[in-house]
Structures are given as C-alpha cells and as structure tokens.
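Duplicate of #3305? Posting structure anyway:
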C-alpha cells in the first residue's frame, strides 16, 4: 500500500489525494504539520532532503517527492495520462505551466493570506506581484478553456488535476474568478467527474503526526 505524507490544506498534496481517490488506490495518509515544522525533523529529512510535502512512500520503502512527478507516476497506464507522445507532451506542458506560472502566485497568495496567521502583514510587498502574475495565469487558462472542455484532447487528465487543485480555492488568495467564465465551467466539469473528492476528504485509514514544536 502507498503511504502519502501530506498536509490537508495544501493544494499540492490535494492533487495527489484526488488522483489516488479517482484511481481507487488504497493508501495510508500521514499528516505532516508543515506550519509547525514537522517537515524539518531529521526523520522526515532522511525521507525527503528538501523537506517538502507531498511525499509518496512506495511499497518497498522508496520515496517520490514533487506533486506533479507523483501524479505522472501514478497516472501511468491509466486514462489520466495519454499514450500518444504529443498528447503526453501537452499534459507535461500544462503541468510545467502550473508549477512555473500558476502555483507560485495563486498558491503562494492563498498560503500567506489564508493559512498563515498575520501572513498578509508579513508579505505585504508580495501581494501586488502575486495578483499580477496570478491573473496573468488565469487569463491564459481562460483563453485555452474557451475552446475546449479540458486542457488536453478533450478529456480529463493529470494536467487538469494539477491545475484544479489550486484554482478551485484561488478566491482564498483574493483572486476573483467571476470574470473567468470558461475557468469556472471547467472547475465544475472537473468536480462533476466520477470519483471526485474535495480537499477535506481523507481515506478511512490515516494517522496523525504530532507537531514538531
């Protein structure tokens, strides 16, 4: 069985939980309290020297880090990753876009403005940049989704899952989605797909990790 080291409120961790749920794969969820430093303990750093979640522990004891790498690994041989080389490259294109143009603004804004106490005051100088870059990414998505139901080949893929995770809670980072109708329709389509779970969902078997502090 897979073991997923995860923070419940993290969009990057939610991506992996969502795909595991859609695939019907059993896994154990291990909560890592990043805000209290549980990802910086010697034990966790032995598993992932970068100290980041999500971290997927594979049967046999190997570890795989980075949310989109985990999605790619889990999706191999499933309907969520195309076989055609060009379509696979398109999936990767949008996953790279998510990590380089989308997540650094939209997820960062949500983290500091919603999850960190006093985060707005701590990062006041970053808010305008997050807004500019985040809205630029949303405009790219709007133009693309205005002509198609999903990001690649008209069907749900891990590109959609990667982008959905942070976009569906973008308003928690002060992003207004009301002027992005194609994005909002796409969010609804993703949520309507069979096997969808929300960010609060947890598998039946999971265990808590106490704060490191």
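Output from current build:
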């Amino acid at each position: 069985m897979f073991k997923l080291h995860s923070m419940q409120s993290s969009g990057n961790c939610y991506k992996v939980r969502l795909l595991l749920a859609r695939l019907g794969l059993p896994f154990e969820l291990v909560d890592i309290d990043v805000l209290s430093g549980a990802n910086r303990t010697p034990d966790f750093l032995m598993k992932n020297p970068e100290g980041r979640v999500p971290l997927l522990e594979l049967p046999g004891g190997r570890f795989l880090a980075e949310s989109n790498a985990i999605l790619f690994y889990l999706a191999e041989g499933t309907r969520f990753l195309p076989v055609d080389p060009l379509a696979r490259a398109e999936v990767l294109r949008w996953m790279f876009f998510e990590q380089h143009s989308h997540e650094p603004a939209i997820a960062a804004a949500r983290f500091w403005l919603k999850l960190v106490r006093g985060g707005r005051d701590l990062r006041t100088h970053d808010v305008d940049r997050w807004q500019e870059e985040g809205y630029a990414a949303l405009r790219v998505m709007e133009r693309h989704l205005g002509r198609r139901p999903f990001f690649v080949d008209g069907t749900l893929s891990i590109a959609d899952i990667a982008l959905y995770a942070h976009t569906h809670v973008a308003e928690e980072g002060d992003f207004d989605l009301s002027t992005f109708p194609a994005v909002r329709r796409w969010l609804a389509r993703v949520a309507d797909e069979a096997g969808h779970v929300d960010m609060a969902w947890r598998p039946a078997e999971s265990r808590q990790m106490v704060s490191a502090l």
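Confirmed duplicate; merging threads. The radius of gyration is 17 Å. Strands lie at 2-6, 27-31, 55-57, 63-65, 206-207.
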